[in-house]
Amino acid sequence: MVKQSFDQFSDSLYVTAVQVATVWTSPDSARDIDRLGVKVPADVKQWINELTYEQNLALCDENRVQSQLLYGQPVIITDTKGDWAHVVIPDQPSKKDERGYPGWVPRAQLLEVDKEDWQSEFTAVVIRKKAWLETEAGQRETELSYLTVLPVVEVGDTRVEVKTPYGNRFLQSNEVTVFPSAKGLEKGNGKSIVEAVEAYTGLDYFWGGMSAYGYDCSGLAYAAHKANGYQIARDAGDQAKAGVDVPFNALKPGDLLFFAYEEGKGRLHHVGIYYGDGKMLHSPQTGKGIEIIELAGTIYEKELCAAKRYWLDTEGT
């Protein structure tokens, strides 16, 4: 997690007010079958579970979904159209907009907060697959995804009080890590990048997914780095253009592997995380779950076109 900065926002800012807000290509992209994903509160788990394979695949093939936002994640609203807001996401870098990843979100899934009030000396990040936001009385209110980030009010013995769009709430201390907002999380190494998402093996792929309810290939790579204090681009194509080039004979766990059609000479279409021992951890495609596979003898071995390292290699290469 990089340090929290709100310099690019006006005095008031808008933050995500549902557990996961999907970022759509246009206000017309969401279908009737997507109602659980666009309502308030959202029920992303049930929405995904109810989609058929064909309906899920259409999110990609029909260019409906761009990305996702986690609870409390700040956005910049650049336009509105009816019940929809066009946003850019500053902490999801993209070539599509220098201010951040662009797309459309239901306006009801965003709430305005005061920028000064939202800032705090410390920040909490969810380190479990899921964590429940609780009221002061201990009543469970909202299920949050892994890597949800919220400003800290106070750290107690068993719970951490945090700020939310709806006022102060609480998270169990063993479900979060608290870090200084100005410094960000301590940067991890390649092994910790792998470990950050290894537990998600088997989780179904979800196009545009950026949450523990489903990741796409670049979303998984983004999350693994976010959990270790690194901010990388949202999309695989952008991820491949930065970082440090790594020769294929010098790969280490945590390096990103990129794949292109036409045996590596065509359009880049996939990213995975090098697991070590010739294996890759990746979220492959709609209808399949996150997996760890041997590269040798697969189509990926033929399509491998680049490798990049974003993590700090203190041992050198």
From TrEMBL:
| SUPFAM superfamilies according to UniProt | Cysteine proteinases
- Keyword hit for Ribonucleoprotein: no
Q: Where is the NlpC/P60 domain?
A: 187-311
Q: Is Protease a UniProt keyword of this protein?
A: yes
Q: Name the UniProt key words of this record, in alphabetical order.
A: Hydrolase, Protease, Thiol protease
GO BP term (any one):
proteolysis
Please give the InterPro entries that the UniProt record associates with this protein. Answer: NLP_P60_dom, Papain-like_cys_pep_sf, Peptidase_C40, SH3_YKFC_2nd
Give the Pfam families listed for this entry.
NLPC_P60 (PF00877), SH3_YKFC_2nd (PF23795)
Q: Which branch of life, at top level?
A: Bacteria
GO MF, any single term: cysteine-type peptidase activity
Q: Which family does it belong to?
A: Belongs to the peptidase C40 family.
UniProt-listed PANTHER family: GAMMA-D-GLUTAMYL-L-LYSINE DIPEPTIDYL-PEPTIDASE, MUREIN DD-ENDOPEPTIDASE MEPH-RELATED
Q: What is this protein called?
A: C40 family peptidase
Source organism per entry reads Oceanobacillus jordanicus
**What's the source species' lineage?**
Bacteria, Bacillati, Bacillota, Bacilli, Bacillales
